[in-house]
Model the fold of this input.
Amino acid sequence: MLAVDSTGSVLADSLTIHPSSSPKPGWSEQAPEDWVTGTMRGIRKVLGHPDVDAEAIAAIGLTGQMHGLVALDEARSVIRPAILWNDQRSAPQCLETEASLGLDFLLQHTGNRMLPGFTAPKLLWMREHEPDALARIRHVLLPKDYVRFRLGSELAMDVSDASGTSVFNCGKRTWSNSMLDALELPESWWPDVAESSEVIDALNPQMAEELGLRAGIPLVAGAGDQAASAVGTGIVEEGIISATLGTSGVVFASSNTWRTTPEGSLHAFCHAIPGTWHLMGVMLSAAGSFDWFGRSVLPDVMQEAEARGDDPWDELCTRAATIEPGSNGLFFLPYLTGERTPHVDPDARGCFVGLSPTHDRNHMTRAVLEGVTYGMRDCLDLVRATGVHAEVIRLSGGGAKGAMWRQLCADVFGCRTTTTTSTEGTAYGAALLGGVGGGLWPDVPTACNKVISERDQADPGEACEAYERLHHRYRDLYPALHRWWSAK
Done:
């Protein structure tokens, strides 16, 4: 949660943690009501900051996790806990749909493969396993759209978030009747779509009173988290590419034309700027792999750093920096929760390859960082193959805070990397979209050019050539292990 003024300065921020549950292995759910109460708590905290004037709020922009299924009944009440983006239960439905309709059909009518994280296959899972709940559905929303509905009154969705539902024609920026008919999902379930900076609702009087705001503040359509993050780091024109080292890893490239990739190897979605699209490669476990490794293998190091008041990730990176590039022949595959890009494989799993008595925990630490960065390079190579290139890759996310990992990215990517002056890309992007909708800036690119600049430059170093060779070795490992992972 951020409050941003017309100069792009962050006046106040707030963080709220939403609990999640995993009723079965591979499942991930949250209660939509927790998002609403968390949002309200965050707004109240931001409004309590002395630099924030509640009367000066021009508009509210929203962003949120993509793909999550919020199913509503006739009374617009939530039917079941939301099934989230990282939930893998609908993998069988994705395989069955691709087999019955064909990959070419999916790419023609949506521009993308159907993946377990997307929204529509969750409904297909409900049809098979929760038919009574499915029969009650009258409306389908995504997470941030449910929050906006509760703040205002309208059911709507923006084009960037709709792109990840599996029933949206991204090239035409509208719902795909062909997909809805093929999947037998009613068109009436899906709300109107809007461009991300478009004002589509207003803060309702009840919420305004509870929050201490004036009623009628414009509510902007907003964007899915990745498109909002791209806005927040200035990835709004073709030729600018970002790499986000968050829990998941994302390579994101803006495109001025509609592009798809062979076999849907990259997500091809609508961007948060009218008339533009984006290509996106997604690793399911990027910095998440690093955090898992630290908490599971080096808990003593993490705890000691935290006790000193130091960032435990910095301590791990310091240890990794003592090891030569290549980790003495040790590789790590970061497929802890399956993978999306470049391998659509929910059965893939993480592993170390090449362990020997010469390796210690520092070698393993560097191997994890290298493995994640190799995976990001896989995504980047797919983007480059479409004809979209950039001389500089903008880094964001928790992993981009450390100089060691930023330099590793420059060496593995083979090009300059930078960070940006906006450190909270996703929330900052939502704020900029709100500012455009509220009239503070005429359009999104203008807003980004005024308030975002680059910093923390890293150029490819001596290790670049070695990493080119090592990346080829890394790419050989997935095909070698795929058959073993897929055996039941």
In short: The mean pLDDT is 94. The first strand starts at residue 2 and ends at 4.
